[in-house]
């Protein structure tokens, strides 16, 4: 039975990846942090077979201990402070967790493999946020990185450190440059879920409108359930490598509002949407669109859920969820 360790198990991707690996017969270990993590219950309910171990990406000794207990064949490093807007307000902590945390888990993995590179394979959750200021359209594995947020800068550090461990120690390390991926499990701070929850509450008469920041930004949005499959495929290759994972389509937040409000039969969303500078970022990433050719050709991966279906799935789920919560 193959064994996997996932950091970030309480996050959106951690849950989908756990389900995928369990369905493939893996024994799955998850890193969990904090004395009293409120998301622990969700993990226990959703994927009860996952074995949880305490540790933190900022504490390398905890990572060494967790690896020695889990004895994994595959390590998926999904843990991060992942909210871009928050990263300006907590840039040092974001650097510690999202940046140096990658070095910590790579180093713990190197110690664990003890010179035997066949012992373990490593996945790093890199991000399209590393592309930042537009240099090339669409963005691919070779596009110049120009991050525009402390989060993006930290991810660039983690990305190159992963490549460095591959080149220095022969670690089978892959970096997935994933573009935005969403689901009904997406954190409510991200724009897709903020909108799907708001639209659901408007439909139920619980809320009057929603206040957003820049609605002209464009993103390449896919479904998280599809994207975790690409992570797994990377670690099944003979060599570690870097892959862009994206749909190849881009949409503005205006497009997102069109589809979300159409789901509740509203054609003109303008009366429901206001903008506030508090949700604008000091530096914006205006346009993301990925070229997933390499992932398709090498990994045999392609996205299954199109944008409109994804948004409708999220709104429909939130209507049901909010109806229960409001009872
Ligand atoms: P989430 O924000 O949903 O989850 C982040 C996870 O990181 C949580 O489980 C959180 O645990 C954990 N974490 C935070 N701080 C630490 C720490 N100090 N030590 C250990 N774990 C920690 O993110 P997603 O699931 O959406 O994303 C997964 C990864 O992929 C992240 O690294 C993200 O940056 C990256 N990514 C995401 C994309 C997306 O569109 N979703 C696109 C590209 C990259 P806790 O419950 O303890 O806070
Ligand atoms: P992003 O996702 O920054 O791309 O990072 P987010 O959903 O937060 O923002 C997307 C775009 O929407 C604009 N926006 C708003 N965003 C939020 N959160 N709230 C608002 O009210 C709002 N109004 C407009 C933003 O300015 C931005 O342009 C996500 C995270 O999952 C990262 O961890 C990951 O690496 C990248 O995707 C790829």
From TrEMBL:
Its cofactor is NADP(+). InterPro entries: GDP_Man_deHydtase, NAD(P)-bd_dom, NAD(P)-bd_dom_sf. It catalyses: GDP-alpha-D-mannose = GDP-4-dehydro-alpha-D-rhamnose + H2O. The keyword NADP applies. The keyword Lyase applies. It comes from the Bacteria. Its EC number is 4.2.1.47. Residues 5-314 form the NAD(P)-binding domain. Belongs to the NAD(P)-dependent epimerase/dehydratase family. GDP-mannose 4,6-dehydratase subfamily. Catalyzes the conversion of GDP-D-mannose to GDP-4-dehydro-6-deoxy-D-mannose. PANTHER family: GDP-MANNOSE 4,6 DEHYDRATASE, GDP-MANNOSE 4,6-DEHYDRATASE. This is GDP-mannose 4,6-dehydratase. It comes from Cryobacterium algoricola. The gene is gmd.
């Amino acid at each position: 039975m193959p064994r996997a360790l996932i950091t970030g198990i309480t996050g959106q991707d951690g849950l989908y990846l756990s389900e995928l690996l369990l369905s493939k017969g893996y024994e799955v270990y998850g890193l969990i942090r904090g004395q009293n993590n409120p998301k622990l219950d969700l993990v226990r309910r959703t994927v009860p077979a996952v074995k949880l171990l305490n540790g933190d990406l900022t504490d390398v000794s905890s990572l060494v201990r967790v690896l020695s207990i889990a004895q994994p064949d595959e390590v998926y490093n999904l843990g991060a402070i992942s909210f871009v807007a928050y990263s300006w307000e907590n840039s040092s902590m974001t650097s510690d967790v999202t940046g140096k945390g990658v070095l910590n888990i790579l180093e713990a993995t190197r110690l664990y493999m003890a010179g035997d590179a066949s012992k373990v394979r490593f996945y790093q959750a890199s991000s399209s946020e590393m592309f930042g200021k537009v240099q090339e359209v669409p963005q691919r594995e070779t596009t110049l990185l120009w991050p525009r947020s402390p989060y993006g800068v930290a991810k660039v550090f983690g990305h190159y450190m992963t490549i460095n461990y591959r080149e220095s120690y022969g670690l089978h390390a892959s970096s997935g440059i994933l573009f935005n991926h969403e689901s009904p499990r997406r954190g409510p701070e991200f724009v897709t879920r903020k909108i799907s929850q708001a639209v659901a509450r408007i439909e139920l008469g619980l809320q009057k409108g929603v206040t957003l920041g820049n609605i002209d930004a464009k993103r390449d949005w896919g479904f998280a359930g599809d994207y975790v499959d690409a992570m797994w495929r990377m670690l099944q290759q003979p060599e570690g490598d870097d892959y862009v994972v994206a749909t190849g389509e881009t949409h503005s937040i205006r497009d997102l509002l069109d589809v979300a409000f159409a789901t509740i039969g509203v054609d003109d969303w303008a009366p429901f949407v206001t903008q506030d500078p508090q949700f604008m970022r000091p530096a914006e990433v205006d346009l993301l669109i990925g070229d997933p050719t390499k992932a398709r050709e090498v990994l045999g991966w392609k996205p299954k859920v199109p944008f409109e279906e994804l948004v409708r799935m999220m709104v429909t789920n939130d209507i049901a969820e909010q109806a229960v919560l409001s009872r």
